[in-house]
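Cross-posted from the bioinformatics board.
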Amino acid sequence: MLRSGKLAILGGEKTIPDDLIKPWPSIGDIDREYVLASLEGNEHAYGPNCIAFEEEFANWNENKYAITTNSGTAALHMGIAACGCEVGDEVIVPAYSWSSSATCVLHHNAIPVFVDIDWETMNIDPARIESKISEKTRAILVVHLHGLAANMEAIGSIARKYSLKVIEDACQAHGAEFQGKKVGGWGDCAVFSFNQNKCVSAGEGGMFVTDSKELLKKAKMLWSFGEIKGPGEERDYHVHSLGWMYRNNDLSAAFGRAQLTHLDTFLATQRKNALVLRKELENLSGLMIPRVPEGCKHNWYNFVCRVDAGACGYQGDRRRFRDAVVKAIEAEGVRARAWQKFILPAMGVFQTRSAYGHGFPWSWPGARKVSYDPADYPVAQKHCDTHFVISVPLRAPHGEEVATLVGGAIRKVFDNLNELDIDQLTKEESRIGITSRIS
Ligand SMILES: *Cc1c(COP(=O)(O)O)cnc(C)c1O
């Protein structure tokens, strides 16, 4: 195993050669077959593949109902509306997630109230939820971040105590389990994404799932213009309430259906590779590897590590240290990156309350004043500053040999940390500020 030798970032040999890591998703004959059949079928809008995708996904995830959408974010907005959140109502969300886990609340004029995360799980900290509940709170939006289920037992009991709805953002968590049951079946409704990076990739797309007929009905009204009946039913095009156009299209659904047939094998590969990588990185000083709490089955969408600059003997800015480590790992041929460098409450949209203009929805007279002081979320901030993720190298078609090499590359960097010139490596970042990245 390659671990000694000069770091690639200092001119040494790369641990992983350029063509070893394949792009995601992995495409096979079945993908070509489904997508070409859709192309030739001449039903390109919400078509037969969409209907089949809904049925197959609901079956796979053991949900009663599913509606396929053009994004996970659209499905999240449907979830907020389906749970009866109205103007000025509050929704509890984790302080660290993808942006739209929080902005979907604004889409329906409701107000996100942030809760700090738990350091170990990186998910919302159930112990901090109750103090954020007010008479305006209608729902808790939980995110199963990086593919690890949030503690649905603790969250469920808080929700029952205060009669709140629970929306699961499972956009990263296809196949993740809590106490032997898949995510997406714990809350009142749940949402999955089929964006290219996700475990089921359809280019773009999403799925709203629920076991409640009433929530299905409410979600469906938003989905197709505010009509009661969607495509495939006898439409009269009467708009009953404010709707959007969140429907999926047949080509994307065909791609998604084909990828769904690979999903169980893909997940098994990710799980096996993550296990290998965890073994490789055990007891590496200064690196905290992900742990899986009792009762959870991770899907390993992201393998998330945290770097302890102090334990590595670096007393400067922890973000710069992490950035330098990531650069050195990437130079070894492993795609590593900080996944999300900003906690949600610190983002401009919340800091400047920039949504519908005139400060709306926060300025609505019936709204309660909420604060978005980033200092209230120290755990999320520390996580933001210290983490990096590995994803594609641990997914299909890569096998255990690649996972072993990834481990070797990271160990090589940690074994040679004293050779990195942190200030030199992060000069660009400090000059131009942190650049944003596409999801
Ligand atoms: C990707 C993602 C979303 C949004 O899904 P899109 O399909 O890109 O709209 C929402 N929440 C989380 C946690 C995500 O990772």
